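Researcher: We're teaching a course module on how sequence relates to structure. For the next exercise, students receive a sequence and then see the predicted structure as tokens, so they can try to spot secondary structure elements on their own. Here is the exercise chain.
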Amino acid sequence: MTEQFAVDVLICGAGAAGLTLAIDLARRGVSFRLIEKMDKPFHGSRGKGIQPRTLEIFEDLGVLDRMAAAGGPYPRQRHYHDDGSHSDSELMEQQAPIPAEPYRTPLMLPQFLTEAILRGRLAELGHHPEFGSELVGFDQNETGVAVRIVGRTGEENIRVRWLVGADGGRSFVRQALDLGFPGRTLGVRAIVADVSLTGLNRDVWHRFGDKDMQRQISLCPLAGTDLFQIQGPVPLEGDVDLSVEGLNAMVAQRTGRDDIQVTSVSWASAFGMNARLVDRYRVGRVFLVGDAAHTHPPTGGQGLNTSVQDAYNLGWKLAAVLAGARGQLLDTYEEERRPIAAAMLGLSTSLLEDLKRGEIRRGRETQQLDIGYPKSSLTIERLARDGDVLAGDRAPDAPVQGAAEQSMRLFDLFKGTHWTLLAYEANRAALPPRRGLHIRHIGERGDIIDHAGHVRDIYVLGPGDWVLVRPDGYIATILASAEMSVLQRYLEEVGLGQPEQAHP
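Model: And here is the predicted structure for the students to work with:
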């Protein structure tokens, strides 16, 4: 008797990670439910920075232009000094786009707007989060997960193939799995508040008391809104008054000014900073993504971005196994993403130490463009390479032309749910078509023209080279034509199966 499942995947938590995973599964035709125990969407701006690599992911998911229209660039910082003077500086180096990297500076977009846009995209794909639905228990075996959900209409018991915990730093899923969450408390407690205020212009990010941790406070205009975000450290113990009156007292005391007046509070929170990483990302048929797997200080704007990229890594692998790929493919989720989170925690903690000293400039290391999977079991390095682009790296963009002379980019070729195989001046008959694999022939007689030589130069390719790009935009391997047997075996292992039969 065939086992019955309500859906393939139950996603617990409808924040940025859960929404990203839901969108990716929806466009792949995977059945799922997305539940959220809160009664309504989160309305704060805990995270407000979208890094360049995440912008590339959002382009693939079809939401980048909406986010760019809703948000804006980071403003310059204005540092106010004790003598009454001030100085301005850039938070990060402004870098112009280059062919390989179309997005090189972060976008500021408050978290509640980011998530609203993601919900809109999910609605276009025919799905919605189920607010007011809480996961209260689950039990798994080799074939599936039995889950108990309490919602607005009572308790529900269903069976699913996989459960994904995207339910934040206090994750019920992680706690129910009884996983270790080692790390350390960083000895810093802070507030973050979205407020309306008067007395400051919106052209700069206002910072006071940079050299004295106890007096630090920043007031940042939130792009896409009329709000400011207030941030500042507070004592480790005791209540914090986050009312209009309490915030006004804090602002006046730390800025030494009485002309800055908070008029309303949209959302506010006080939180202790930790750096923790879960022992395992997967237990059987249950996975953790985002803050459920890693918690960190907010410095550097890494958290939301790392969470989105967790989901982007997992989504295509779940779909591939459903389509026939080996189940071991799902083991590569933890293999690839846990080391990335460990490095992110180290970076965020280091930036927190810089912030304590009043140093807050951010460099390329926060942009996540250099993150890759060179040591992954999904990566095959075959060619001796002289260039900077290697198997396991993020696949760079490049301008190209179609055979009909239309302007295109490599990202246009990569966009979607498929794998992409670039055949650079190679024999187009060497590999028959396969479902889920788009083969694009680059060359004078190909369907793609490298008219300015950018593909050749960026990837350091010669005639007969092949570049296989994963569905999440990372290079699986770069091979010479003499090694096509290696490519054939690899495609079968990741579930791309046998060649499609040609039809007249």
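Model: If you want an answer key for the exercise: Residues 235 and 326 are 51 Å apart (CA to CA). The mean pLDDT is 91.
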